[in-house]
Design brief:
There is one protein chain. The protein is an alpha/beta fold. It folds into two domains: 24-121 and 226-326, D-Maltodextrin-Binding Protein, domain 2, CATH 3.40.190; 124-223, D-Maltodextrin-Binding Protein, domain 2, CATH 3.40.190.10. The chain has helices at 2-22, 25-32, 58-71, 87-93, 107-111, 154-165, 178-186, 197-204, 234-252, 260-263, 269-274, 281-285, 291-299, 302-309; strands spanning 35-39, 48-49, 55-56, 77-81, 98-99, 115-117, 122-124, 126-131, 145-150, 170-175, 192-196, 213-215, 223-225, 228-230. It is globular, with a radius of gyration of 22 Å. Keywords: Signal, Transport.
């Protein structure tokens, strides 16, 4: 009995020591002085650098929000452009601190890939881009069509499932990168191109004649997209998760980039806790209590991030849909700051 108790105590001690040793990401980022953020680098609306190397996009703003929370400086980010194939290895190896690259949350990625998804910042689904001249109104009319798709993605698997379920013949044309797939589609090598519906609006703009193409209304899968971190560091997981939650709560409470300073004088207890005027929420994460203020000043609230990069204020003009707040018929819902 004594041996069993001793063994259990030793195992517990080792486990706690291991956890403490693994909880080093925040410290490493602070010592380095920059956040290494895995991004797309090739997708309008989500992650794309211009000719001068200035990055913009929905996911890019999340990277900047994390940097603002840690450093009070949204520019302290090194964007690491990653292909779909390389993104998981980059996270597992420690090349990046966080992966924010329109990546779908799945069971296998949560387990065998050693990733922890911190939440859903964009509810998406797979769709199809076709030429208007094809006169196709539904993906169900694509039997025997050649479809361009990127290798090593859930997109490729969903495509096969959809055609198999509907007893349709499929001619898959696969490519290592989305850039290659879009160029092949635009050159006429495929009848359709498939990826997340949100991405299709951006990829359509890259074709030679965007007005000649249309995104079909069909959504054939669930694609919950969000940031992910490595297994084993709960503190870092909590920080990245609550960056998203704080942005959503800010929109719900009406706190924006323009009014955040004024809102710090609010009598609303929810706003006061969100902005760190009351409570010690930030200290619990290993950050300053006003970390949400830093983020909102840098990128705005969730709605502002969406509108600027994907919504009606952007070239993509994607409707909020499922990404509207829960109070407005959508799925975006964040736990309270308390």
């Amino acid at each position: 009995m004594k041996r069993a108790i001793l063994s259990l105590a030793l195992a517990t001690t080792i486990g706690l020591a291991g956890s403490a040793a693994e909880a080093q990401t925040l410290k490493s980022v602070q010592q380095r002085g920059v956040l290494n953020c895995g991004a797309n680098g090739n997708l309008a609306g989500f992650g794309l650098p211009d000719a001068q190397g200035n990055w913009t996009g929905f996911d890019v703003d999340y990277c900047r929000a994390i940097a603002a929370a840690i450093f009070n400086d949204p520019t302290k980010v090194k964007f690491v452009p990653l292909t779909a194939k390389d993104r998981f290895t980059a996270l597992q190896s420690g090349e990046i601190d966080v992966l924010i690259r329109n990546t779908t949350w799945t069971s296998s990625r949560d387990t065998t890939s050693g990733m922890n998804f911190t939440g859903v910042n964009y509810y998406d689904g797979q769709g199809f881009l076709v030429r208007k001249a094809l006169k196709v109104n539904s993906a169900l009319e694509l039997s025997d069509a050649a479809v361009c798709v990127q290798q090593g993605t859930t997109t490729e698997l969903n495509l096969a499932d959809f055609f198999r379920t509907n007893n349709m013949k499929l001619k898959t044309v696969t490519f290592a990168t989305s850039d290659e797939a879009v160029k092949a589609y635009d050159a006429g090598r495929c009848d359709a191109y498939t990826t997340d519906a949100s991405a299709l609006y951006g990829e359509r703009l890259r074709t030679a004649s965007p007005d000649d193409h249309v995104v079909l209304p069909d959504i054939i899968s669930k694609e919950p997209l969000g940031p992910s971190v490595r297994h084993g560091d709960d503190q870092w997981f909590d920080i990245v998760r609550w960056v998203n939650f704080m942005l959503i709560n800010a929109e719900e409470l009406g706190v924006s980039k323009a009014n955040v300073d004024a809102q710090m004088k609010s009598d609303n207890p929810e706003i006061r806790r969100l902005l760190g005027v009351e409570g010690k929420q930030g200290e619990a994460f290993g950050l300053t209590n006003d970390f949400a203020v830093r983020m909102i000043k840098a990128v705005g609230n969730y709605g502002e991030v969406f509108e600027r990069n994907l919504g009606q204020g952007s070239p993509l003009k994607i409707s909020r849909g499922l990404n509207a707040l829960w109070t407005k018929g959508g799925l975006q819902y964040a736990p309270p700051v308390r």
